[in-house]
Amino acid sequence: MKRSAVRPAEAVQTVEVRVRGRVQGVGFRPTVWRLAQDHGLDGDVCNDGEGVLIRLRGESALIGHLVAELRTNPPPLAQIANIEISPCAEALDAGFRIAPSLSGVPRTEIAPDAAICPACAAEISDPRARRYRYPFTNCTHCGPRLTIVRNVPYDRDATTMAAFPMCDDCAAEYADPADRRFHAEPIACPACGPQLRLVRFDGGAVPRFPDAVDDIAAAALLIACGEIVAIKALGGYQLACDATDPDAVARLRGLKRREAKPFALMARDLDMVRRYCSVDAQEEAVLLSREAPIVLLESSGREKLPETIAPGQRMLGFMLPSTPLHVVLFQSLDRPVVMTSGNVSDMPQVTDDAEAVALLAGIAPYALVHDRIIANRVDDSVVRVMGSDIRILRRARGYAPAARALPPGFEAAPELLAFGPEMKATFCLLTEGRAVLSQHQGNLEDAATYDDYRRNLALYRDLFAHRPDALACDRHPDYLSTKLAREHARDDALPLVEVQHHHAHLASCLADNGCAREAPPVLGIVLDGLGYGDDGQIWGGEFLLGGYGSVARLGCFPSVAMPGGARASREPWRNLYAHLVTAIGWRECIAEFPELPAIQRLASKPCTTLDAMMRSGTNAPVASSCGRLFDAVAAALGLSFARQAYEGEAASLLESHVCRETLHDEPLALAYRFGLIAQTQKPATFDLAPMWRSLLADLAGGVGIPVMAARFHKGLAVALADMAVMLARREAGTASFDTVALSGGCFQNFILFEETARNLKERGFSVLSHSAVPANDGGIALGQAVVAAARMIEAGTDRRKGN
Question: Which residue numbers are catalytic?
Answer without folding.
Answer: 29, 47
